[in-house]
Design goal:
Blueprint: H1 2-9, H2 18-31, E1 40-47, E2 50-57, E3 66-72, H3 86-93, E4 99-103, H4 115-126, E5 134-144, H5 146-160, E6 169-172, H6 183-187, H7 196-206, E7 232-239, H8 243-255, E8 260-269, H9 279-300
Parallel strand pairs: 3-4, 3-5, 5-6, 6-7, 7-8
Antiparallel strand pairs: 1-2, 2-4
Helix pairs in contact: 4-5
């Protein structure tokens, strides 16, 4: 883990403009991307007017199509794309037979809330017109960090719009509140992979309107009603400024009657899913794959 932290810190932007910062983030993601262990079919295309990357096992799909995981990348809402998180897809597809649709939602500060969430909703609505062998009765959503915010918000927005829920939601060290309370905010304020100051900067760029900091479609913990949402796996990194809000969100979901599992990544720091060769990170991917299979199997029963 220390080696990961040192290596990640080496990818500094040459200047402070957004193209340079995003390029540095992309280089960092590429560095931590291992070759896929299995042969995959990978296609880039627009779905619902938004660029996506679809990963699926090579060979024939099941008769009803592949079960689907819509994946929303991290990057503080300001960096990342459908091309930067191959590392996640490669690691998960070693463990699960499904299609992953990664979404290139618009980025802040050029496109602040609700534009990124609207893009995710557009892809969700457009999956049936993608021309891909997907089983639309078996679609889950997941996201890491800022993407976890969007995954949780997607479920809330679908419920509020009277739409069906995903079969499952997986929130991977997600940002869930703009509040700066909680012991982990103080304990890990200077953490190298996500500091409290870095989180605040990203929040201000994503939510430039102060009123949106309390909108449940922006920050899911701000909502009073968390009922009638998809079964959830909430993964927290125990050495992460976001740890306590993930724990709080899992507890709130459980109180609201949502089937929820909290998975604690002992020894993990924010962004640690990029190094699946570490035992605890491998365990996180194993649990994510098993959770998705359990929800899929439960649904079909």
């Amino acid at each position: 883990m220390q080696a990961f932290i040192r290596t990640a810190a080496a990818f500094r932007s040459a200047s402070d403009d957004w193209p340079s910062r995003r390029a540095a983030f992309a280089r960092q993601c590429a560095h931590f991307t291992r070759p896929a262990e299995r042969t995959l079919q990978v296609t880039d295309q627009r779905i619902g007017g938004v660029m996506t990357r679809c990963y699926r096992p090579a060979g024939s799909a099941p008769s009803a199509g592949w079960p689907v995981l819509m994946y929303l990348h991290g990057g503080g809402w300001t960096a990342g794309s459908h091309t930067t998180h191959d590392w996640f897809a490669h690691a998960l597809l070693e463990r699960a037979d499904l299609a992953i649709v990664a979404v290139d939602y618009r980025l802040a500060p050029e496109a602040s809330f609700p534009a990124p969430l609207n893009d995710c909703l557009s892809v969700w609505r457009g999956l049936g017109d993608a021309g891909l062998p997907l089983d639309l009765a078996r679609v889950a959503v997941a996201g890491d960090s800022a993407g976890g915010t969007l995954a949780a918000a997607l479920c809330i927005a679908l419920r509020d719009h009277g739409r069906a829920q995903p079969k499952a939601q997986a929130l991977l060290y997600a940002v869930l509140t703009a509040d700066d309370t909680g012991a982990s905010m103080r304990e890990f304020a200077q953490a190298p992979t996500l500091s409290a100051a870095g989180l605040t900067e990203s929040l201000r760029l994503y939510l430039p309107e102060a009123g949106d900091w309390r909108h449940p479609h922006a920050m899911p913990l701000a909502g009073g009603d968390l009922s009638r949402l998809a079964p959830a796996l909430v993964l927290v990194a125990m050495n992460d400024v976001l740890r306590d809000q993930g724990i709080d969100y899992a507890a709130r979901l459980q109180v609201a009657g949502v089937d929820t599992e909290l998975w604690r990544g002992e020894g993990l720091v924010h962004a640690a899913l990029r190094v699946p060769e570490l035992a605890e990170v491998a365990a996180a991917y194993n649990r994510l794959a098993a959770f998705l299979l359990e929800q899929d199997t439960a649904e079909r029963r």
